[in-house]
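Per-residue structure
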Amino acid sequence: MGEYFEKSDKTFTRVYKKETPDILAAFAAFDEAVFQTEGREIPLKYRELIALAVGITTQCVYCIDAHSQNAVKAGANEAELAEAAWVATAIRAGGGYAHGRLAFKLAGTHDHG
């Protein structure tokens, strides 16, 4: 069995092109609009760092690959990549903490005071 993440994985885009070309075109246009160089309030470097943090949070190796490189191309340095990774880590940890409280609520073993 091959690796989960291989550069050749992109070749499977051909299935989208064959089976759902209209949806693929709409997605490509949407993605292009989100990451266009000019005309957005948030500078591209920050949008790429946000995308990197989201990719780390969702653990999407494809997003981490693309957006870490795109962030650097847009001017990000290693310190900024590191901080984006820590932001993602804090959000995931915070989610665990907050959802952990639901265990107490749903278990019904404690009062709400």
Remarks:
- The chain is about 70% helix and 0% strand.
